[in-house]
Design brief:
Helices cover about 55% and strands about 5% of the residues. By secondary structure, the protein is mainly α. The chain has one domain. The chain has a two-stranded antiparallel sheet with strand order 1-2. Strand 1 and strand 2 form a beta hairpin. Helix 2 packs across helix 7 and helix 4 runs antiparallel to helix 7. The chain starts with a helix and ends in a 30-residue tail after the last helix.
Length: about 180
């Protein structure tokens, strides 16, 4: 929950908007794993890479090996975390946009640790790079970065029509 609050605080400070729960999940995950976003060799990413190194992010973290699975499990938790932040009055939903309240902004500003400072740097970079992308372009970019997986189901998606085995394929002993 702390990362969500930090991210929304940075978004407000930078004048950026978080337009959906799916986008919030992407922004939060990639702010914690920024090398996925800035790992390309483009010269335009040099300043971002330098900022991440100075903030303490390492490109050689073991966790980058399982990015897709970690994203899927984290994405499942975000609704619960977000609902708690709303219940505590730290975040509000304005239409489809998530914003940090004054109390939430104050709490996020008082989070003092090297991790919180590094996360703020990373969140600012990730938001600047991803907020401007259309939903379609963002989805395509995420798929390129972490791969396509059946685990990556939209949080609010309807799963009717999912491939399920026919009922006759279920063994009678399994029904008891």
């Amino acid at each position: 929950m702390g990362r969500l609050l930090l991210l929304l605080g940075v978004a407000k400070q930078d004048g950026r908007h978080v337009e959906s729960i799916d986008r919030l999940a992407y922004y939060e995950f990639f702010a914690d794993n920024p090398w996925v976003v800035v790992a390309d060799d483009a010269d335009s990413a040099n300043a971002d890479r330098d900022s991440l190194r100075i903030a303490g992010f390492s490109q050689t973290q073991l966790s980058y090996a399982s990015t897709g699975h970690r994203f899927a499990s984290r994405r499942e938790r975000i609704r619960g975390d977000l609902s708690q932040l709303v219940a505590y009055g730290l975040v509000r939903l304005d239409g489809v946009r998530f914003t940090v309240t004054d109390d939430g902004e104050h709490l996020a500003a008082n989070m003092q640790s090297s991790y919180a400072d590094a996360y703020r740097v990373s969140a600012s970079i990730v938001l600047r790079r991803l907020v401007r992308l259309s939903n379609r372009r963002l989805e395509a970019q995420v798929e390129e970065w972490i791969g396509h997986s059946w685990l990556l189901i939209d949080l609010l998606d309807d799963v009717r029509g999912a491939d399920l085995p026919p009922e006759t394929a279920i063994d009678e002993s399994d029904r008891r």
